[in-house]
Design brief:
InterPro entries: DUF1203. The chain has 2 helices and 8 strands, in the order βαβββββαββ. With about 160 residues, it is α+β, with helices and mostly antiparallel strands.
């Protein structure tokens, strides 16, 4: 099954860059990168040392509901191209040895029993396995250590 790695929507990234409120109603914080592990959730690449970036609360779900997790993310403060690699594993997912993959239903709720810490080299296989299951609409990739949202994987 062809996979599609999806970044945060470009229109939402543009809103945050205009300093519109984040998921908590706060103005995104502006910082300068030291180049140490600040993955942009729009281009899905690390933010280079010296580049300005935003820290903000992000909720990758369309509506509030009990499973709509919100957490901190990084975003280039200046416009960047949305990740367009499609089926290629984004570079931000090569900076750790493993990630948490978890399946969600079409109702945007966690499908119990799908969460597993997955080695980087097994991300495609695990995502394919999850997306082959009935009732799973998409997969979130999250930090295995801090549960921070990285990106979404869908069927192509």
């Amino acid at each position: 099954m062809p996979l599609h790695y999806k970044p945060m929507p470009s229109d939402l990234a543009a809103r945050y860059r205009r300093r519109e409120p984040d998921a908590y109603g706060l103005t995104p914080e502006l910082h300068v990168s030291d180049g140490q592990g600040m993955p942009c959730r729009h281009c899905l690449a690390n933010i280079a040392a010296g580049d300005p970036y935003l820290i903000l609360a992000y909720r990758p779900f369309p509506e509030l509901q009990p499973y709509a997790e919100t957490g901190p993310i990084f975003l280039h403060a200046e416009e960047c191209e949305a990740y367009a690699g499609g089926a290629a594993v984004p570079s931000i997912l090569t900076t750790s040895r493993d990630y948490l993959l978890r399946g969600y239903g079409p109702d945007d709720r966690i499908v119990y029993g799908t969460g597993a810490v997955t080695p980087v080299e097994s991300i495609d296989a695990r995502a394919t396995e999850l997306l082959d299951r009935p009732g799973i609409a998409y997969v979130h990739v999250r930090s295995a250590r801090n549960n921070c949202y990285q990106c979404r994987i869908e069927r192509e």
